[in-house]
Amino acid sequence: MKLTRRSFLKASAAAAVMTAAGVNPKEKSLLSVAKASSEVDKWTKAPCRFCGTGCGVLVGVKDGKVVAVKGDKKNPVNKGFLCIKGYSLGKLMNATEDRLKKPMIRKNGKMVETDWETALDLVAKKYRESIDTYGPDSVAVFSSGQSTVQEGYVLSKLMKGAIGTNNLECNARLCMASAVVGYLSVYGKDEPMGAYADFEETDLFFIIGANMAECHPILYSRVVQRKRKGSDVKVIVADPRETRTNKISDLDLAFKPGTDTALLNAMAYVIIEEDLIDEDFINSHTNLKQDGRDITLNEFKEFLAEYTPQKAAKITGLDADDIVKAAKMFADPKRESLSLWTMGVNQQIQGVPINQAIHNLHLLTGKICRPGSSPLSLTGQPSACGTAREVGTFTHKLPAHRVVMKKEHREEMAKHWGVDVDKIPPKPSYHTMAMFEAINKGDINALWVTTTNPAHSLPNFNKYRQGLEDVFLVVSDVYPTETTKYADVILPSAMWVEKEGFFGNTERRTQHFEKAVDAPGEAKPDLWQFLEVARRLGYGELFPYKDHPEKEIFEEYRKCTLGTGKDLAPYDAYRHTRGLTWPVVDGKETTRRYVANDDPYVKEGIEFYGKPDGKAVIYAREYTGPAESADKKYPFILSTGRVVEHWHTATMTMQVPELKQAVPEAYVEIHKDDARRLGIKSGDMVKLISRRGELKIKAKVGGRGVPQPKMLFVPFFDSKHLINLVTKDAFDPQSKEPEFKICAVKVEKA
Amino acid sequence: MINNKKLIIGLLVLVLGLLVLTGCNPDDPRVKKALKKDFKVEAEAIPNEGYPPTVPHSIEDRQDCLACHEKGVMGATVTSHPERPNCVSCHVTE
User: Do both A121 and A50 map to the same domain?
Assistant: First the structure.
């Protein structure tokens, strides 16, 4: 005990030095760091638990506790730096007071503690009963972009290969499904071709629908560093709301919410009109399509005639000259251009067309597949790419980017799994919003929610509440959440380095983390929970893992990836590296895909091998606007998003005192002109009312974010102020991703 | 038994660290406050290496932290790393 006290004191002392040293490139305090390190039993490495950037974290363990975290200097993603959430990981790992520590089951309407046997037996019994009575499609799992690669793989095998249902979805549907359809439709394969290395090679950052300063701070710091060092590096920030990201921009494009397609089409118009296109690239590497038929470049030009800068200015509310300026900056043939976007683009009913319109700018100018030029979509969860997209925990997917609709893919996976091919249903069942509709209707009787919080994060939640109350609901999580309120069984989970796993980040980097400490109480890894229930359901022989399940499962999954273009390296390779970017072939990772000499799947030049003819597609997509527009009765457009201090539904970040204190509650940002007109001051309580629900919340005028006039913004992290009672559940017809970013509301003084 | 020598060295490292951090003298009330805070962290038994100091004033309407914190205008804490200007990605308000 005394020893521990002393080492704590030393670590505190070192903390002060590290604060300076950790961010000081001169590294003059390295000695102190070493001293602190000697007070730690062991250091392990892990990718950060929070967003999709995938920063490397070093975790110091002493006497079975996490006593120190620091940025991993050897990790190329963050080079030793972390944001406040990353620095908070150590505090989070010690915030065990509120942790779920014992399994619980509902008895006579109340949750009571129980043992694992009872809880797991109950889950298996309910699933078995439902499957036997109503068929495999009467049970479902809603998983997460925070699930590890192994967890996702076991869920896919259990649901699709063993039970025989495609009722496996994940929360990544709510955050980047539109980006997936963007890449898939344009290049025939999902996920970015570029890498973070492009940040240091580019001359122009085109940031649209992303508040990187708050949501991807470490990547934003790479933008800032590039701008500081590059002699002529420019930044365009296109966003209806002025954010901290705008601080470094050379050109702000504050377009009207939901008019992104018009802006991007107008930029394409200017690029063609000013002859800034790369015609050789277009001819050799692209096809052009409109409404499913091939078109010529001339026909594409005719399509764009509706999007002259003047016409687009009317739609977007921008200055036509600014649109021209942006297009010329992007297309300057002497410069490299990097597009970065995230939820602002993806969470719209035009999510897919906007994604495609961004890709168009790169394909028209040939600014793609070369250092510094790339369309790079940013992800919000640590394994949205590694698990949700690559393992494929969506209804239509199978491991390693396969899809259930393709016979050969089903056959390949049936062989890998050792199951009858007919077991895997050939049709996708429910995408996320349809799944919760089916639960409302009683078509799904049992739902297992793992590592996510739909009662907080689903749009228009009032509509889905009854379903969650009625369904047999199992929730695996680490803290109580909005969703555990509706649970019939709560399974306490191990978090981050309390278990072993893999995450895959935005730039195709697959990273391993080992178990560093024990989970508190009786909490257990989700992977163990899934395997225990699989055995109880009678599928034990499909999951024969013994000594080291995490390794055995990874090696099994790896076999499914070989030859698919997303080849992974053997398990051990990841233990000794700061991650590897796939495809990894013959031990060599790939920084940029689709380019010879880098991507082993390409022999010569550039080849978009996801498409049969190796050509990417330029899509002509019309601007159609959001699902709901402002009108007399509901005159404001409401948008939702994030703050740097909190992550998603804040079940973890609210446990860190500094983060909770910094932003204790949500608020609604309102433009000062609107506030003045309505007689609202900062701190006043107001009521936001939509056609679906209402919310009382504090107003905020000015500050870190300033929405344009007639626009409001509410961060969604706060469980005491659930903005998703107000938002709309309309979704993009292709990606099925809901339009969290736009709905019509009115504001009243409360 | 607590090793006094190591304790003193530890404290010294702490104070030196704060000096690096603040660039001003240890009698400064903010340094004293920070010292107190670190002991509180120790009492809570959750020390974490490199936890960025929190900001003791509102930052809502201040756009440029470096305007004061680069040179120490009006006694402001001087940053050791002015090359990383997105201060609020690590330093949150109290």
Answer: no
- Would you state the pLDDT for residue B82? 87
A550 class by beta-carbon count within 10 Å (0-12 exposed, 13-18 middle, 19+ buried) = buried
Residue A580 to residue A134: CA distance in whole angstroms: 44
Domain CATH for A537: 3.40.50.740
Rounded to an integer, the average pLDDT of A343-361 is 98
Q: How many CA atoms lie within 13 A of A574 on its CB side?
A: 28
B4/A contact by beta carbon, under 8 A:
no
For residue A39, what are the contacts with CB-CB under 8 A and spacing of at least 6? A7, A10, A11, A14, A62, A67
Name the residue with higher pLDDT: B56 or A299.
A299
Phi, psi at residue A333, to the nearest 5°? Answer: -65, -20
Question: What is the distance between the terminal CA atoms of chain A, rounded to a whole angstrom?
Answer: 53
Yes or no, beta carbons of A13 and B13 under 8 Å apart? yes
CA A460 centroid distance within chain: 20
Over residues A586-609, mean pLDDT:
97
Residue A683 lies in a domain: yes
No. of helices (H) and no. of strands (E), chain B: 3, 0
Average pLDDT value for residue range A375-385: 98
Cis amide bond preceding A738, omega within 30: no
Domain boundary among A30, A62, A94: A94
Question: Amino acid letter at A291?
Answer: D
In a domain, A614, yes or no: no
Q: State the SS3 of A498-535.
A: HCCEEEECCCCEEEEECCCCCCCCCCECHHHHHHHHHH
A190: CB partners within 8 A, 6+ apart: A180, A183, A184, A389, A401
Q: pLDDT for A400-455, tens place per residue?
A: 999 999 999 999 999 999 999 999 999 999 999 999 999 999 999 999 999 999 99
Model's pTM, two decimal places? 0.90
Say yes or no: A155 and A23 in one domain. no
DSSP A593-634: TTBTTTSTT-SSSB--TTSTTS-EEEE-------SS---SSS
Tell me: do A497 and A641 sit in the same domain. Answer: no
Q: Examine the domain organization and report whether A113 and A89 are in the same domain.
A: no
In a domain, A185, yes or no: no
Asked if A524 and A462 sit in the same domain, the reply is yes
Per-chain mean pLDDT for chain A:
94
Measured CA to CA in angstroms, residue A345 lies from A145, A171, A238, A670 at distances of 18, 17, 10, 21
CB pair distance less than 8 Å for A68 and B80: no
User: B57: distance to nearest CA of chain A, Å?
Assistant: 11
Predicted pLDDT of residue A38: 56
What contacts A415, CB < 8 A, 6 or more positions away? Answer: none
> Which A residues in the span 256-275 are in contact with B, Cβ-Cβ below 8 Å?
none
Q: Give the domain range for residue A658.
A: 636-727
From A544, A574, A600, the end of a domain falls on A544
What's the CA gap between A259 and A261, in Å, rounded? 6
Q: Are residues A398 and A521 in the same domain?
A: yes
Number of separate domains in chain A: 3
Amino acid residing at A180? V
Output the CA–CA distances (angstroms, integers) from residue A198 to A301, A339, A472, A674, B77, in the order listed: 30, 10, 47, 41, 35
Task: Give me the CATH number covering residue A655.
Answer: 2.40.40.20
Decide if A18 and B50 are in contact by the 8 Å CB cutoff: yes
In this complex, which of B2, B11, B61 lies closest to A13 when CB atoms are compared? B11
Structure tokens belonging to residue A578: 């700061």
Contact A224 B86 (CB under 8 A): yes
Which residues of chain A are within 8 Å of residue B82 when distances are taken between CB atoms?
A: none
Q: Report CB contact under 8 Å: A12, B3.
A: no
Partners of residue A220 in chain B, C-beta under 8 Å: 86, 89
Q: Which of A358, A316, A309 has the alpha carbon at shortest distance from A337? A: A358
Percent of chain A with pLDDT over 90: 93
